[in-house]
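I trust your eye. Have a critical look at both lines of this record:
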Amino acid sequence: MVVPLRSMIRSFFKINFRLTPRRIWNAVQLYGSMYLSRISGKPVVRGYPLMLMVEPTNICNLKCPMCPSGNGDMKRPLGKLDLEQFRKLMDEVGPYIMQVQLWNQGEPFINKNFLDFVACARRMGVMTQTSTNGHYIRTAEDAEALVRSGLDILIFSLDGTNQETYEKYRVGGKFGIVMQALRLISEAKTELNSKTPIIELQFLLFKHNRQEIDEVKAIGKKYKVDRLSLKTAQVYTAEQAEEFLPEEEEARRYSFDGEHIEMKGQVPNWCKRLWLNSTVNWDGSVSPCCFDKDAEHAFDNIFENGTSFTQVWKNSRYNSFRRQIMSERKAIEMCRNCTEGLEVPYAQIIEMKKT
Protein backbone atom coordinates (compact mmCIF):
# COMPACT_ATOMS: atom_id res chain seq x y z
CA MET A 1 0.00 0.00 0.00
CA VAL A 2 1.55 3.33 -1.07
CA VAL A 3 1.63 5.99 1.64
CA PRO A 4 -0.53 8.99 0.57
CA LEU A 5 1.47 12.14 -0.11
CA ARG A 6 -0.50 14.16 2.47
CA SER A 7 0.28 11.58 5.18
CA MET A 8 3.96 11.60 4.32
CA ILE A 9 4.18 15.40 4.44
CA ARG A 10 2.20 15.51 7.70
CA SER A 11 4.60 13.06 9.33
CA PHE A 12 7.63 15.02 8.15
CA PHE A 13 6.27 18.26 9.64
CA LYS A 14 6.88 16.74 13.07
CA ILE A 15 10.59 16.51 12.29
CA ASN A 16 13.13 19.27 11.77
CA PHE A 17 13.77 19.77 8.06
CA ARG A 18 13.51 22.90 5.95
CA LEU A 19 10.44 22.87 3.72
CA THR A 20 11.23 24.65 0.44
CA PRO A 21 9.50 24.97 -2.93
CA ARG A 22 12.08 22.65 -4.48
CA ARG A 23 11.46 19.96 -1.88
CA ILE A 24 7.70 20.27 -2.26
CA TRP A 25 7.90 20.07 -6.06
CA ASN A 26 10.29 17.14 -5.84
CA ALA A 27 7.86 15.26 -3.57
CA VAL A 28 5.00 15.94 -5.98
CA GLN A 29 7.03 14.68 -8.95
CA LEU A 30 8.26 11.64 -7.07
CA TYR A 31 4.89 10.54 -5.79
CA GLY A 32 3.33 11.23 -9.17
CA SER A 33 5.87 9.02 -10.93
CA MET A 34 5.44 6.30 -8.31
CA TYR A 35 1.68 6.21 -8.83
CA LEU A 36 2.16 6.20 -12.62
CA SER A 37 4.52 3.26 -12.25
CA ARG A 38 2.01 1.38 -10.14
CA ILE A 39 -0.78 1.99 -12.63
CA SER A 40 1.19 1.35 -15.83
CA GLY A 41 3.31 -1.53 -14.56
CA LYS A 42 6.41 0.20 -15.97
CA PRO A 43 9.00 2.15 -13.97
CA VAL A 44 8.63 5.92 -14.23
CA VAL A 45 11.07 8.00 -12.17
CA ARG A 46 10.98 11.78 -11.78
CA GLY A 47 12.76 13.88 -9.22
CA TYR A 48 15.01 12.67 -6.41
CA PRO A 49 14.30 10.24 -3.55
CA LEU A 50 12.89 11.83 -0.42
CA MET A 51 15.31 9.91 1.78
CA LEU A 52 18.89 8.84 1.21
CA MET A 53 20.71 6.27 3.32
CA VAL A 54 24.43 7.04 3.37
CA GLU A 55 26.83 4.59 5.01
CA PRO A 56 29.55 6.20 7.19
CA THR A 57 31.35 2.84 7.46
CA ASN A 58 30.72 -0.89 7.21
CA ILE A 59 33.18 -1.60 10.04
CA CYS A 60 31.77 -2.61 13.43
CA ASN A 61 33.21 -3.15 16.90
CA LEU A 62 30.73 -5.93 17.76
CA LYS A 63 30.28 -9.48 16.48
CA CYS A 64 26.50 -9.81 16.25
CA PRO A 65 25.76 -13.29 14.81
CA MET A 66 23.12 -12.21 12.25
CA CYS A 67 24.99 -9.13 11.02
CA PRO A 68 27.48 -9.51 8.13
CA SER A 69 29.59 -6.64 9.49
CA GLY A 70 30.05 -8.49 12.75
CA ASN A 71 30.01 -12.18 11.83
CA GLY A 72 32.57 -11.89 9.03
CA ASP A 73 30.21 -12.78 6.17
CA MET A 74 30.51 -9.42 4.43
CA LYS A 75 32.14 -9.79 1.02
CA ARG A 76 32.64 -6.17 0.05
CA PRO A 77 35.75 -4.26 1.22
CA LEU A 78 35.71 -2.53 4.60
CA GLY A 79 36.22 1.20 4.78
CA LYS A 80 34.97 4.65 5.78
CA LEU A 81 33.11 7.35 3.91
CA ASP A 82 35.22 10.34 2.85
CA LEU A 83 33.97 13.70 4.12
CA GLU A 84 34.61 15.57 0.86
CA GLN A 85 32.76 12.92 -1.13
CA PHE A 86 29.81 13.29 1.24
CA ARG A 87 29.84 17.06 0.81
CA LYS A 88 29.78 16.69 -2.99
CA LEU A 89 26.85 14.30 -2.72
CA MET A 90 24.96 16.73 -0.47
CA ASP A 91 25.67 19.60 -2.85
CA GLU A 92 23.91 17.59 -5.55
CA VAL A 93 20.94 16.09 -3.71
CA GLY A 94 20.70 18.14 -0.50
CA PRO A 95 18.34 20.81 -1.88
CA TYR A 96 15.80 18.11 -2.83
CA ILE A 97 15.88 15.33 -0.24
CA MET A 98 14.17 15.60 3.14
CA GLN A 99 16.13 13.11 5.20
CA VAL A 100 19.55 11.48 5.25
CA GLN A 101 19.91 8.26 7.25
CA LEU A 102 23.53 8.01 8.35
CA TRP A 103 23.93 4.27 8.79
CA ASN A 104 23.68 0.99 6.94
CA GLN A 105 26.12 -1.73 7.90
CA GLY A 106 28.72 -1.07 10.59
CA GLU A 107 28.82 1.33 13.56
CA PRO A 108 28.52 4.95 12.29
CA PHE A 109 30.55 6.53 15.11
CA ILE A 110 33.65 4.57 14.08
CA ASN A 111 33.98 7.19 11.32
CA LYS A 112 35.55 10.18 13.09
CA ASN A 113 33.87 12.52 10.61
CA PHE A 114 30.39 11.43 11.67
CA LEU A 115 29.36 14.69 13.34
CA ASP A 116 30.71 16.59 10.31
CA PHE A 117 28.34 14.57 8.12
CA VAL A 118 25.48 15.61 10.39
CA ALA A 119 26.52 19.27 10.36
CA CYS A 120 26.82 19.29 6.57
CA ALA A 121 23.32 17.89 6.09
CA ARG A 122 21.78 20.13 8.74
CA ARG A 123 23.24 23.26 7.11
CA MET A 124 21.27 22.32 4.02
CA GLY A 125 18.08 21.88 6.02
CA VAL A 126 18.08 18.08 5.71
CA MET A 127 16.81 15.98 8.59
CA THR A 128 19.42 13.57 9.99
CA GLN A 129 19.04 10.18 11.62
CA THR A 130 21.41 7.43 12.73
CA SER A 131 21.55 4.12 14.59
CA THR A 132 24.27 3.21 17.10
CA ASN A 133 25.31 0.51 19.53
CA GLY A 134 26.41 3.24 21.93
CA HIS A 135 30.04 2.25 22.50
CA TYR A 136 31.66 5.41 21.13
CA ILE A 137 29.91 8.03 23.27
CA ARG A 138 32.11 7.76 26.33
CA THR A 139 32.39 11.22 27.88
CA ALA A 140 30.17 14.18 28.67
CA GLU A 141 32.03 16.06 25.94
CA ASP A 142 31.13 13.37 23.39
CA ALA A 143 27.48 13.56 24.38
CA GLU A 144 27.41 17.36 24.29
CA ALA A 145 28.99 17.41 20.83
CA LEU A 146 26.38 14.93 19.63
CA VAL A 147 23.49 17.03 20.93
CA ARG A 148 24.98 20.27 19.58
CA SER A 149 25.50 18.69 16.13
CA GLY A 150 21.78 18.96 15.43
CA LEU A 151 21.22 15.25 14.87
CA ASP A 152 17.45 14.78 14.72
CA ILE A 153 16.92 11.10 15.58
CA LEU A 154 19.20 8.66 17.39
CA ILE A 155 18.23 4.98 17.30
CA PHE A 156 19.98 3.45 20.30
CA SER A 157 20.27 -0.35 20.27
CA LEU A 158 19.75 -2.06 23.63
CA ASP A 159 18.82 -5.74 23.34
CA GLY A 160 19.22 -6.70 26.99
CA THR A 161 18.98 -5.19 30.46
CA ASN A 162 22.11 -6.79 31.91
CA GLN A 163 25.48 -7.94 30.63
CA GLU A 164 24.44 -11.59 30.24
CA THR A 165 21.41 -11.06 28.02
CA TYR A 166 22.91 -8.06 26.22
CA GLU A 167 26.03 -9.88 25.02
CA LYS A 168 24.05 -12.95 23.94
CA TYR A 169 23.44 -11.12 20.67
CA ARG A 170 25.68 -8.04 20.94
CA VAL A 171 28.77 -10.21 21.13
CA GLY A 172 31.76 -8.28 22.47
CA GLY A 173 29.54 -5.49 23.77
CA LYS A 174 29.78 -3.93 27.23
CA PHE A 175 26.43 -3.24 28.86
CA GLY A 176 27.92 -0.77 31.32
CA ILE A 177 29.43 1.37 28.54
CA VAL A 178 26.12 1.41 26.67
CA MET A 179 24.16 2.47 29.73
CA GLN A 180 26.70 5.19 30.49
CA ALA A 181 26.32 6.52 26.94
CA LEU A 182 22.55 6.60 27.27
CA ARG A 183 22.84 8.48 30.56
CA LEU A 184 25.33 11.00 29.13
CA ILE A 185 23.16 11.78 26.12
CA SER A 186 20.09 12.20 28.30
CA GLU A 187 21.95 14.54 30.64
CA ALA A 188 23.37 16.56 27.75
CA LYS A 189 19.91 17.06 26.27
CA THR A 190 18.65 18.26 29.64
CA GLU A 191 21.59 20.59 30.27
CA LEU A 192 21.35 22.10 26.79
CA ASN A 193 17.55 22.23 26.92
CA SER A 194 17.46 20.42 23.59
CA LYS A 195 14.60 18.40 22.15
CA THR A 196 17.00 16.62 19.81
CA PRO A 197 18.17 14.11 19.13
CA ILE A 198 14.91 12.25 19.57
CA ILE A 199 16.07 9.04 21.24
CA GLU A 200 14.50 5.81 20.05
CA LEU A 201 15.51 2.88 22.23
CA GLN A 202 15.49 -0.19 19.98
CA PHE A 203 14.97 -3.59 21.56
CA LEU A 204 15.23 -6.63 19.29
CA LEU A 205 12.90 -9.41 20.44
CA PHE A 206 14.77 -12.67 21.07
CA LYS A 207 14.00 -15.88 22.88
CA HIS A 208 16.46 -14.96 25.63
CA ASN A 209 15.24 -11.39 26.36
CA ARG A 210 11.44 -11.53 26.03
CA GLN A 211 11.06 -11.41 29.82
CA GLU A 212 12.92 -8.07 30.00
CA ILE A 213 10.44 -5.81 28.20
CA ASP A 214 9.20 -4.20 31.42
CA GLU A 215 12.79 -3.60 32.49
CA VAL A 216 13.74 -1.93 29.22
CA LYS A 217 10.65 0.28 29.51
CA ALA A 218 11.85 1.31 32.98
CA ILE A 219 15.30 2.12 31.56
CA GLY A 220 13.65 4.22 28.87
CA LYS A 221 11.71 6.23 31.43
CA LYS A 222 14.74 6.67 33.67
CA TYR A 223 16.81 8.17 30.86
CA LYS A 224 13.95 10.15 29.31
CA VAL A 225 14.00 8.43 25.93
CA ASP A 226 11.30 9.58 23.55
CA ARG A 227 10.14 6.21 22.26
CA LEU A 228 10.77 2.51 22.53
CA SER A 229 10.83 0.24 19.49
CA LEU A 230 10.15 -3.45 20.11
CA LYS A 231 11.41 -4.96 16.88
CA THR A 232 11.20 -8.52 15.57
CA ALA A 233 14.52 -10.13 14.67
CA GLN A 234 15.77 -10.95 11.19
CA VAL A 235 17.34 -14.40 10.75
CA TYR A 236 18.85 -16.24 7.81
CA THR A 237 19.21 -19.90 8.83
CA ALA A 238 17.22 -22.55 10.70
CA GLU A 239 19.99 -22.66 13.30
CA GLN A 240 19.63 -18.94 13.97
CA ALA A 241 15.84 -19.28 14.14
CA GLU A 242 16.12 -22.11 16.66
CA GLU A 243 18.49 -20.16 18.87
CA PHE A 244 17.03 -16.66 18.70
CA LEU A 245 13.38 -16.56 17.64
CA PRO A 246 10.83 -16.20 20.46
CA GLU A 247 8.18 -18.88 20.87
CA GLU A 248 5.32 -16.37 20.64
CA GLU A 249 3.98 -15.95 17.11
CA GLU A 250 3.31 -12.25 17.57
CA ALA A 251 6.99 -11.67 18.41
CA ARG A 252 8.42 -12.99 15.16
CA ARG A 253 8.03 -12.29 11.46
CA TYR A 254 8.62 -15.88 10.32
CA SER A 255 6.88 -19.21 10.23
CA PHE A 256 9.30 -21.84 11.55
CA ASP A 257 8.70 -25.58 11.86
CA GLY A 258 12.10 -26.49 13.28
CA GLU A 259 13.67 -26.96 9.86
CA HIS A 260 12.32 -24.35 7.48
CA ILE A 261 11.94 -20.60 7.95
CA GLU A 262 9.64 -18.52 5.79
CA MET A 263 8.47 -14.94 5.98
CA LYS A 264 4.79 -14.71 6.88
CA GLY A 265 2.67 -13.55 3.95
CA GLN A 266 3.18 -13.32 0.19
CA VAL A 267 5.82 -10.93 -1.14
CA PRO A 268 3.98 -8.40 -3.36
CA ASN A 269 5.36 -7.34 -6.73
CA TRP A 270 5.94 -3.83 -5.52
CA CYS A 271 8.33 -1.89 -3.27
CA LYS A 272 7.90 1.82 -2.62
CA ARG A 273 11.49 2.02 -1.36
CA LEU A 274 12.69 2.03 -4.97
CA TRP A 275 11.10 5.46 -5.37
CA LEU A 276 11.20 6.96 -1.89
CA ASN A 277 14.77 6.17 -0.88
CA SER A 278 18.12 4.88 -2.06
CA THR A 279 21.39 3.75 -0.46
CA VAL A 280 24.92 5.06 -1.02
CA ASN A 281 27.58 2.82 0.51
CA TRP A 282 30.80 4.18 2.00
CA ASP A 283 32.73 3.59 -1.25
CA GLY A 284 30.20 5.33 -3.49
CA SER A 285 28.38 2.26 -4.79
CA VAL A 286 24.63 2.86 -5.06
CA SER A 287 22.39 0.01 -3.86
CA PRO A 288 18.59 -0.26 -3.95
CA CYS A 289 18.27 -0.51 -0.16
CA CYS A 290 19.94 -1.60 3.08
CA PHE A 291 18.97 -5.24 2.43
CA ASP A 292 21.63 -5.32 -0.29
CA LYS A 293 24.30 -5.86 2.33
CA ASP A 294 27.10 -6.85 -0.06
CA ALA A 295 26.10 -4.39 -2.81
CA GLU A 296 25.40 -7.30 -5.14
CA HIS A 297 22.74 -5.22 -6.90
CA ALA A 298 24.76 -1.97 -6.99
CA PHE A 299 23.90 0.07 -10.09
CA ASP A 300 27.08 2.15 -10.38
CA ASN A 301 29.69 3.97 -8.30
CA ILE A 302 29.33 7.74 -7.97
CA PHE A 303 32.79 8.22 -6.42
CA GLU A 304 34.77 6.29 -9.02
CA ASN A 305 33.05 6.45 -12.40
CA GLY A 306 32.41 10.17 -12.77
CA THR A 307 28.66 9.73 -12.66
CA SER A 308 26.27 11.79 -10.57
CA PHE A 309 23.75 10.29 -8.20
CA THR A 310 20.99 11.64 -10.44
CA GLN A 311 22.34 9.69 -13.41
CA VAL A 312 22.48 6.47 -11.39
CA TRP A 313 19.03 7.04 -9.85
CA LYS A 314 17.46 7.04 -13.31
CA ASN A 315 19.81 4.75 -15.25
CA SER A 316 18.81 1.59 -17.11
CA ARG A 317 20.21 -0.78 -14.46
CA TYR A 318 18.17 0.86 -11.69
CA ASN A 319 15.02 0.80 -13.83
CA SER A 320 15.65 -2.81 -14.81
CA PHE A 321 15.72 -3.69 -11.11
CA ARG A 322 12.51 -1.74 -10.53
CA ARG A 323 10.95 -3.61 -13.44
CA GLN A 324 11.93 -6.96 -11.94
CA ILE A 325 10.48 -5.96 -8.58
CA MET A 326 7.21 -5.13 -10.32
CA SER A 327 7.07 -8.46 -12.15
CA GLU A 328 8.61 -11.09 -9.87
CA ARG A 329 9.96 -9.66 -6.64
CA LYS A 330 10.16 -13.05 -4.92
CA ALA A 331 12.82 -14.12 -7.43
CA ILE A 332 15.25 -11.72 -5.70
CA GLU A 333 16.71 -13.48 -2.67
CA MET A 334 17.07 -10.45 -0.41
CA CYS A 335 13.44 -9.46 -1.05
CA ARG A 336 12.21 -12.79 0.32
CA ASN A 337 13.58 -11.78 3.73
CA CYS A 338 12.11 -8.27 3.69
CA THR A 339 8.93 -7.07 5.40
CA GLU A 340 8.19 -4.25 2.95
CA GLY A 341 4.60 -4.56 1.79
CA LEU A 342 3.78 -7.45 4.13
CA GLU A 343 1.32 -7.38 7.00
CA VAL A 344 3.64 -9.16 9.41
CA PRO A 345 4.91 -8.30 12.91
CA TYR A 346 7.84 -5.94 12.48
CA ALA A 347 8.02 -3.30 15.20
CA GLN A 348 5.86 -1.86 17.93
CA ILE A 349 6.60 1.78 18.66
CA ILE A 350 5.80 2.97 22.18
CA GLU A 351 5.77 6.72 22.80
CA MET A 352 7.43 6.93 26.20
CA LYS A 353 6.11 10.39 27.03
CA LYS A 354 2.58 8.99 26.87
CA THR A 355 3.13 5.96 29.11
User: Anything to note?
Assistant: The radius of gyration is 20 Å. Residues 21-40 form the longest helix (20 residues).
